[in-house]
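Usage

Read records sequentially. Each one opens with the input sequence:
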Amino acid sequence: MRLVLAGTPAVALPTLDALAASGHELLAVVTRPDAPRGRSKRPVASAVGQWAEAHGVQALKPAHPRDPEFVAALTALAPDACPVVAYGALVPQHVLDIPPFGWINLHFSLLPRWRGAAPVQHAIMAGDTETGATTFRLVQALDAGPVYGTLRRPLDGSETAGALLDELAAAGAGLMVETLDALGTTEPTEQDAAGATLAPKITVADARLDWTRPARDLDRHIRGCSPEPMTWTEMDGVRLKVAYARPTDETGLAPGALAVEKRRVLVGTGTTALELVRVQQHGKKEMTAADWGRGLHAVPTGFDGTR
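and closes with the structure output:
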């Protein structure tokens, strides 16, 4: 199978490695244009673009996949299929139609649940007991195309979005190769739209902690936003990010009220107290909450103006 992979961030690299080791022919990659990074604002290639350069593979970087130059280049390459992992741009129908087997997307949920940009984060925040990955054929509707294959992964309630996404990316690479191996011999199955849920991108505003919510919900929220965009709260107008926490059985603290102990820091919620485990002050590196608590000159009584 002659392939052109579309992808941008590092989550696509396990699939690239798997394709390079398979019997398929990787003709090129399609990725987002180089973007300014760091203080110098010098354009830097995406993770997929850097992989292509290191492996001597052609990289196409259209501003948009409808650009005529890109359409002509893809048509000339004549791929049989275009595997996709987190490309980040909407592909128009006339471009989807170029490869005879279409564009095959690896999505990190059990479709039709969690269609959208942040499926892993939403699965954790919703308290799902299972998630996984799905390969399906791209159509114009959001993550609604027919499904080729799935893999399942039970959730035990301790996962962070970053670690879970890395795990699913590694496992999903094998699923993508299996799907491509079977193209032409199997037919995909239509999704049940009635079971669809949406997983929009999580913004910094969405990541703000509401201490009136139950401790269990806050735990899921924190893990679902770790490492990006990371949940946060404020103390006297100064932002504090919360990277990891865990619910306790302790009561007696009002929502947002703070108790700094020798080896731990507790915050009141709408139910029981939440123990902060790792936090990050503005402009500083992530640290244990206990170290942060010991560094306070005066012990405040609460977050977000709670007194």
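Summary fields computed downstream for this record:
- The chain has a mean pLDDT of 95.
- The longest strand covers residues 238-247.
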